[in-house]
Design a protein that fits this description.
mainly alpha; Growth Hormone, Chain: A
């Protein structure tokens, strides 16, 4: 067991790792749609590329979570962080969009090692009554990385393209080189600074499918809560992924923006999200997880549906900011709610299963969102400007997301921190 000071340090170091990994993602994610188009792809191909990542992540998150329950969290996080660094370099090798799929799929393997296991270790390291605060710190660090990442990525692209005279294809590779370096720095941080926390031996159980949906030691109410959270994860994963990869294409199509300008806009929206994550997490410790999550979730998905209705770039930016801030308000509360429900000895595998369920939804949502974009974004649908077919994937995403949040509101019974329902 960790001491209070060790737990506090762990949360801070893992927040630093989340910042580094999110920074590396923020560097390259805005470039992906443009990179894919440069290599001959379109909206559907962007969705397929996204799905290749979340598919491997979905298949392996539960397995790696289970391994972390048995073997410890640190070694898996360390291996995944090193793998991130290597894969960032491999992204520069393929000369067709199809070649990117294999690298992106292996990046999903690395992500399955890092994200759910890291979250389980944060929960292990946190006092039950401060889980919301710890999750807020993690979400804030992740957001900050995503905020800075697009600015850094856009700057690297600009320097390579405008100042150094490289071709567009070569300039798009520069952010990947920087990503490899900072991911390696994150791995070294884990190696030297993070302390492991082993699960109690008496709570370790074999990994069985039935045990993931009705875990031993949880009563009927706890199992029902868990299954509702699984359903919410699938639906939210679909809703997020059906829009996420398209946001860049939407801004290019509607306002004819370049990569560097899009990076700045996304960075601004994410930056304002940083302001609410930590205080929202602390607030959920005081007033309850569910109420904070539900309010943030409803506002976020309403914001999603409003984005394509923006008549000017400033209006779209306003709705993007609304969407992002609300998501970051909801995220730490949802993670803390999950932690309250999941029994301690099954934490790795069940957090991994929740991650898998979200990624299963994302596997379906990303290509479907890309398909809807390709089919509708150039159609007027008989509506006045600026309304057109570009709004179709946004409306589908928003309606599904609102349904997912409503499931939690109606069917999850919140437990007091430290007394998870059915905890053995």
């Amino acid at each position: 067991m960790l001491s209070e000071s060790e737990g506090r340090r762990n949360v801070n170091y893992l927040a630093s790792l989340d910042f580094i990994i999110s920074l590396s993602f923020g560097l390259i994610i805005p470039m992906f749609p443009i990179y894919v188009e440069e290599l001959g792809g379109g909206g559907l191909e962007v969705g397929i590329l996204f799905s290749s990542f979340v598919l491997t992540r979905a298949l392996l998150a539960t397995t790696f979570g289970n391994l972390s329950d048995r073997l410890g969290r640190k070694r898996l996080i360390l291996i995944g962080s090193f793998l991130y660094s290597v894969l960032a370099l491999l992204f520069t090798v393929p000369d067709t969009w199809f070649g990117l799929i294999f690298v992106r799929a292996f990046q999903g393997v690395a992500s399955a090692m890092v994200w759910p296991v890291s979250e389980a270790l944060v929960i292990d390291s946190s006092h039950p009554e401060k889980r919301g605060e710890s999750m807020g710190k993690i979400v804030m660090a992740s957001n900050l990385g995503f905020v800075i990442g697009p600015f850094v990525g856009g700057t690297l692209y600009f320097l390579a393209d405008e100042q150094l005279g490289f071709s567009e294809a070569e300039s798009l590779k520069f952010p990947f080189y920087f990503t490899a370096a900072i991911a390696l720095a994150g791995a070294m941080l884990v190696w030297y600074r993070v302390t492991d926390a082993a699960a109690p031996r008496g709570t370790r159980q074999p990994l069985r499918i039935r045990g993931l949906f009705s875990p031993a030691g949880m009563d009927k109410e706890g199992s029902r809560n868990l299954r509702v959270l699984y359903a919410n994860a699938v639906m939210e994963g679909f809703a997020f992924s059906s829009i996420g990869p398209l946001m860049v294409l939407f801004l290019m199509y509607r306002f004819d923006l370049e990569a560097d300008a899009i990076s700045v806009l996304i960075g601004i929206a994410m930056g304002l999200g940083v302001l609410v994550a930590f205080p929202a997490g602390k607030r959920s410790d005081r007033v309850g997880r569910k109420s904070v999550f539900v309010l943030g979730g409803y506002v976020a998905f309403i914001g999603t549906m409003l984005v394509p209705f923006g008549w000017t770039l400033w209006a779209v930016l306003l709705f993007l900011v609304m969407r992002t801030m609300a998501f970051q308000m909801a995220s730490p509360a949802l993670r803390a709610l999950q932690a309250d429900i999941v029994p301690e000895g099954l934490r790795g595998r069940l957090i991994g299963m929740l991650e898998s369920m979200m990624n299963i939804g994302a596997v379906i949502g990303a290509p479907l969102g890309g398909y809807l974009w390709d089919q509708f974004h150039q159609q007027s649908l008989g509506l006045p400007s600026p309304l057109d077919g570009a709004m179709v994937p946004f409306v589908v995403s928003g309606l599904l997301g609102l349904s997912a949040v409503s499931l939690v509101l109606l069917y999850v019974r919140e437990t007091r921190p430290g007394t998870a329902t059915g905890k053995s």
